[in-house]
Write a structure and sequence with these properties.
Blueprint (H helix, E strand, L loop, with lengths): L4 H7 L10 H16 L7 H8 L3 H13 L3 E4 L5 E4 L8 H9 L6 H4 L12 H18 L3 H5 L4
Antiparallel strand pairs: 1-2
Helix pairs in contact: 2-3, 2-4, 2-5, 3-4
Length: 153
Amino acid sequence: MYKNQYINLLIGAWETEMRLKNEIEYVFRILMYLTINGDNRIIPSNEISEKEEIPHLFSLRILKKLEKADLVLIFKGAKGGYKLKKDSREITLKDAIESIEGSICIKDCLESPESCTLRKGNCGVHRILKDIESQFIARLQNVNFRDLADGKY
């Protein structure tokens, strides 16, 4: 099954203290389910929750965040449910993470050098972490949900 493959793909070398939270994995699961099963139909939230083993209320909160991020459409009513708002080739892992976390930043001083009280972001650690962060974000941006669903990784 595909559920943990994204995490391993992205953060295989990270230690346990530096990991994506479960909510991000659930976002990946939901977007994959909608990619694989939602081409020609609106999918009810209880189906997503059940098939992807996500607590129903938690999945509803995540789906609302995905709607706010313009990744998912919500259809209300008795035959309501969820559908991707755009083609799954246009939805990246970066989009998925940012729908929950906002912008990706691995260390405060990378986004705001003045937050570094000692060196104001002017050090080798800052420079290498900025490079690592840029590569990480670029990698996330280059992986879309259609490619994941098609088994390209």
